[in-house]
Write a structure and sequence with these properties.
The protein is of the alpha+beta class. Helices cover 41% and strands 26% of the residues. It folds into 2 domains: 160 residues, ATPase, nucleotide binding domain (Nucleotidyltransferase, domain 5, 2-Layer Sandwich); 166 residues, 2-Layer Sandwich (Nucleotidyltransferase, domain 5), CATH 3.30.420. A hairpin with a 5-residue loop joins β15 and β16.
Length: 354
């Protein structure tokens, strides 16, 4: 028997698989898909957008290239977001997008065995939606799929002591959902999820501009407005900000440019921000008193792209009376947490979704 065959027989099956497969963690978000490969770190960060040929469903582009096509395609090409509110809206397109990303990840690294995948899912996901994501991942090439609650993954990625008998509170504001979770002893004590996030903020800006200026803009333009001059709290600096916004005049039907100010964007976002604050209040009211006392010292940690809105941490602190901070690299907390699970799967199996 050759040395190679002796080596193969000596290794347990699981260890053997791990040698030849590149296990990955995926944050399959409404706005962005981020991929973490074991021992390699974050290797892909692309918008969750796919462009396909209308007749054949052939994937033409995914990620940044596909996002540039949104709202600009002819009838022969469909460019869309296959994820809505943190769950799959179009199964076939999500599978095509995932397969495209996985192929891009493994382009220069051939593997003999299909990878295991840890995928972050919203805590409010139904069993049908959970099964759809698992099936989609397997169709895209996964050997085994391990779903983990996004707030749990975010807490791990933010470096919170989730294994200790003390409360850690995380507010994860993604593109489609906002999730607030209180975590202690490797499990979620209380979790509240609402389908309100960065995309809802964009839609609020679209509605505001349409109502006030009779101007039609796209969600991509609204996102740019939110990033450039959006704020949860007004201050003298925000009041001086403005942005030239281009769209289509609904009265004349011709292109038009308006000047939009920081206070106007703040007004447009008020209702969405109020919904996020309400969810945090509900979570605090539902937290057991012994854990509530921990939060007085530890405070709240914010993750997700939505947490980067100017002044949102200050507003939450003002409304709750607790210290609030935005995690380092808030966009990547979920995928970093899922990545740690991939690296030490046996140690973190208790934290996976049942």
């Amino acid at each position: 028997m050759s040395m190679k065959n002796k080596f193969m027989n000596f290794l347990p099956a699981r260890k053997l698989f791990s040698l030849f497969s590149s296990d990955i963690a995926i944050d399959l978000g409404t706005a962005n898909t981020v991929v973490y490969a074991r021992s390699r770190g974050i290797i892909l960060n692309e918008p969750s957008v796919v462009a396909v040929r209308a007749n054949t469903n052939e994937v033409l582009a995914a990620g940044t290239k596909a996002k540039e096509m949104l709202g600009k395609t002819p009838e022969s090409i469909i460019a869309c977001r296959p994820m809505r509110d943190g769950v799959i809206a179009n199964f076939e397109l999500t599978e095509s997008m995932l397969r495209y990303f996985i192929r891009a990840v493994h382009d220069n690294r051939r593997t003999l065995v299909s990878p295991r995948m840890v995928i972050g899912l919203p805590s409010g996901v139904t069993q049908v939606e959970k099964r759809a994501v698992e099936e989609c991942a397997k169709q895209a090439g996964a050997r085994e799929v391990y779903p983990i609650m996004e707030p749990m993954a975010a807490a791990i990625g933010a470096g919170l002591p989730v294994q200790e008998p003390a409360a850690s509170m995380v507010v994860d504001i993604g593109g489609g959902t906002t999730e607030v979770a209180v975590i202690s002893l490797k499990d979620v004590v209380f979790c509240q999820s609402v389908r309100v996030g960065g995309d809802e903020m964009d839609r609020s800006i679209v509605s505001y501009v349409k109502r006030k200026y009779n101007l039609l803009i796209g969600e991509r333009t609204a996102e740019q407005i939110k990033i450039a001059i959006g704020a949860a709290l007004l201050n003298p600096e925000i009041e001086k900000l403005f942005l030239l916004v281009k769209g289509r005049d609904l009265v004349t039907g011709v292109p038009k440019t308006i000047k939009m100010s920081g206070p106007e964007v703040h007004e447009a976002l008020l209702e969405t921000i109020a919904n996020i604050v309400d969810v945090v209040r509900i979570a605090l009211e539902s937290t057991p008193p012994e854990l509530s006392s921990d939060l007085v010292d530890r405070g709240i940690v914010m993750t997700g792209g939505g947490s980067m809105l100017r002044g949102l941490d200050l507003l939450l602190s003002k409304e709750t009376g607790l210290p609030v901070r935005v995690a380092d690299d808030p966009l990547f907390c979920v995928v970093k947490g899922a990545g740690r699970v991939v690296e030490e799967l046996d140690n973190y199996k208790d934290m996976l979704m049942k």
